[in-house]
Amino acid sequence: MKYVFLLSSKAGAGSFSELEHSIVKCYSSNNLKYTIIKTEHKNHACEIVQKYCDCSDVVLYVCSGDGTLNEVINKMKEINAKFSVGLIPLGTANDFSKNFDYSNFKIENTIKPVIDDIDLIKVNGRYCVNVLSFGFDTVILNSAYNLLKKNPKLRANAYPLAVFQNIFKIPKYKLESSTSNGQNGDVNLKGYYLLGAICNGGFYGGGFNPSPYANLTDGVLEMCLAETMPLYKIIPLIFKYKKGAHLSHPLIHFQKLTKGSIKFEKELMVNVDGEIFTTDFLDFEVISKALRFAKVCDYRKK
What we know:
- By secondary structure, the chain is α+β, with helices and mostly antiparallel strands.
- The protein has helices at 13-29, 44-51, 66-79, 136-150, 158-166, 231-243, and strands spanning 2-7, 34-38, 58-64, 84-89, 114-123, 126-128, 131-135, 173-180, 186-199, 221-227, 252-257, 259-272, 275-295.
- The chain contains six helices and 13 strands.
- Helix 3 (66-79) links the parallel strand 3 and strand 4 (84-89).
- The model has no long low-confidence stretch (mean pLDDT 94).
C-alpha cells in the first residue's frame, strides 16, 4: 500500500505544521513510504487525483474539510479513479467527519485503514458524499462564509453568528417534490417550506443533525423538509434540529428514498457538501457503494 497525504491550503498553516510533523515521525519510524503534497493553486487537488488515477494500491488522505473532499471525489468519479480516499479533518466545520468517531484518532490509524464501499448522492450531474440542502440553512451557510472572509478566526463560531444574523428574516420557498424508495411508490409533496436536506451522512452546517440515523452504506437516502413556520416555533426547533431530536415535530416531513426530484418556483441557493450554487430544480439519486473510502476510525454510534 502507498500513502499520499493531500494537505489543502484551505486548512491553514498551523494545522499543516503539526500534521506534517506527525506524518513524518510516524511513517519514518515504521519504515513506510509516503508522499506529502500541499496544494499550491486552484484545481491542484484535481491534478493530484489525475496523477494517481490508475493506482489501486494508493490511499489518498484528504487533509482538509468537506469542500476539498467533495472536489476530490467528483474528480475521482469523473475519471473513474481506482485508488481509495480517506479523510483527516482539518476544515472549518468538518461535518462529514462527524459521521465517524475521530475522538481518539491518531496518525498511526492511517497505516491500516478499513476500506469501506460507501454510498454517494448524485445530484444535477455532480456528486455529494454528505448532505445536499437548500433554503434557510443555505442562506445561513452563505452568511457564515461571508463572516469567515472578514474574520477567519471565527471558524465554527461563524455558524451560530450567522443564525443570529438571519433569524428575523424568515424566508419561504414554494416547491414540488416527487420521491421514490423503490418499494412503496412515489411520494409527492407541494407547498411552502423553510428548508430541506437530502442526506447520505447525518450532519451539516457546523453540526446540525437532520438525519440522526443516517447510514453511509445502506443504499438509502433520507430527506428532511421543514414547513414554513413563525419565528416562535423556529427557535425551539433549532435546538432540536441540532441534536437530531426533531423527527416527531408536526411541521417536519421525513422520509427514506433512493431517488427524487424537486422543482422550485424560482432559483435559490443550494448546498452540496458546503459548496453553494443556485438552481431552480434538483434531480437526485443514491449511488450505492460508489466510493472506496479508507476508514481510519469507527462509525459514530447512533
